[in-house]
Amino acid sequence: MSTKESSLSTKIHQIFRRYKVAILQSCSPIPVLMVGLMLLFNLFVISNISHDSWSAQRKSHLPTHKTGISQHQTWKPNMQDDKDIKTNVFSAGRANKAPSFFTKINNLVLVEGLSVENQDRHIENRVNAQSIVYNNGKMARKHRIIGPNYYDYDDPDLEQGAGNRQGEIESSSKGQAWLKCKENPNICPQEFQKWYKSMTPLCGVNFIAFDRNFALCQNITLNRQKAIGQKGGESITEVLNQKEAVEFYKYKFGFYHVRNCQKTPKYVFTKYHGKGHLKDWIESVSIKKNHPNPQLTTVNQNFTIAVTRYEYVNWYHSMTDFYNAFLMMKFFRKQPDEISVLLIDAHPQGNLDEVWATLFGNSKRLSETDRLVTYREMIWNPMGYNSMMNQHVRKTIPLIDEFREFFLKRYRVSTSKKLNCDKLDILFIWRHDYVAHPRNPSGSILRKIYNEDEIISAVKSEFPAFNVQGIQMDQLKLKDQLELVAKTDILVGMHGAGLTHTLFLPKHGGLIEIFPQYSNVMGHFRSLSNWRGIHYAFWKNSDVTLEHRNHFTEIPTAVVIKQIQDMAKRIATNSC
């Protein structure tokens, strides 16, 4: 305790002793009232003096910049193109633990709002909602992306700021403060930079929306009883012919709850052909100051990604959800096992349910959670339909090769294959009828090949040194599928979700896509091939006589052989 604080404590005791004697010596209410007023006045004066002392003490705990700038010196950020920067952030390191009035999120702590106009101001005792970034109490590691990080909204002494809207890459080399994302796209993809710039704080900093596609929430409470719908997780046979609408929840107000909001958050999330659960989620957010039934609430400390799936048993559309979650993991700099996935839908059991728990730490359905759960950090995952993987006009999408590596490694599948141009591995993917969801109890599907055996026999005869096989993928476990595709040089199949396996072909590989006469040529897997940098070719039937009943298409063997010959030459030219 400082000398000033010690003397203040002595004065308080003296005042109480003096007024206690006066009260005991008088039975009249007037002296008692006078004594009470005098006591309140003295306490008011003392509290102001004490606050000044406390403020000075807090100021003494403010960090010192690595270059040696003291707490009372003017700090000028070293940034390029200052005119383009609306919000500045500076890094500070110190050996001791970060002050208790900061909350650490994602190994960083952010107090927001330092403007360009105020960048030359001194760092004041209450920080004045200026921007400070701690990196776990130390200088940031070289080239780490600084993402959204927030102070604790429960701290009454910390004002809510306007929010950090500027994304940068931090570099500790030679004391340089920042590098722009665009200068090193391998570290910070262009899309990530766009997301940083789109940061829109709602409810102070307890709810941050990005790019109209996803959001990060801190200390958000979810009330399961306010989601109206099926339980989910049933076997398909139990719910045959079930309408799809009942597999999506209807949300009552208060399904989500965020404390200490000044006003109800308003934000327009992007829809897809009228679909969009994020709109329903934000409209269900309540903002009462007090926590609803804190005694009955479970606290989840994990970094949680909340996902609503649409075509939940479709390999392609599920992959857009997996890819979105992977990008969230990279954007917020998390490790897979740190992440929990919360499935907020009521779909029955599906053959891809287990993928979530394999890719990330664990997964759980909403119906499996406690009634009230507060999530310390929750991501509202982008809608699968709005995934960059579903935007086929894009020339590139971020981290696609890294996503392949991540996926295969989580399944313990080798990510490399040595090419032998004299003995290529050729894999045909067959499409057969099967029951995948309640709306198709017969299991009938489109785009099937009529003459599978004939094709396999002809290709083996034409290319005796090649390893040729045909597989109905849904008959295999996913790990076995991945191992098979990761060793395949040429993948051949009808347009369909199974061709999403193009993602896992070796870098030298090629895809041959086939379309029936009644189908349009679609760009899903052409784009995926282009993004991966692998070879692509397609053939579309134009002869109606080759179309048979029940959506079977006869493929001339000569066409298949010619396509494989051309693809083998392209692979040999580029990789052998």
TrEMBL record:
Domain of life: Eukaryota
UniProt keyword annotations, A-Z: Endoplasmic reticulum, Glycoprotein, Glycosyltransferase, Membrane, Signal, Transferase, Transmembrane, Transmembrane helix
Gene Ontology MF terms: protein O-acetylglucosaminyltransferase activity
Record-annotated Glycosyltransferase 61 catalytic domain positions: 315-511
UniProt keyword annotation of Endoplasmic reticulum present: yes
Top-level class of the enzyme under EC nomenclature: transferase
Known catalytic reactions: L-threonyl-[protein] + UDP-N-acetyl-alpha-D-glucosamine = 3-O-(N-acetyl-beta-D-glucosaminyl)-L-threonyl-[protein] + UDP + H(+); L-seryl-[protein] + UDP-N-acetyl-alpha-D-glucosamine = 3-O-(N-acetyl-beta-D-glucosaminyl)-L-seryl-[protein] + UDP + H(+)
Segments crossing the lipid bilayer: 21-45
Pfam families: Glyco_transf_61
Protein name: EGF domain-specific O-linked N-acetylglucosamine transferase
Organism: Lingula anatina
Taxonomic lineage from the root: Eukaryota, Metazoa, Spiralia, Lophotrochozoa, Brachiopoda
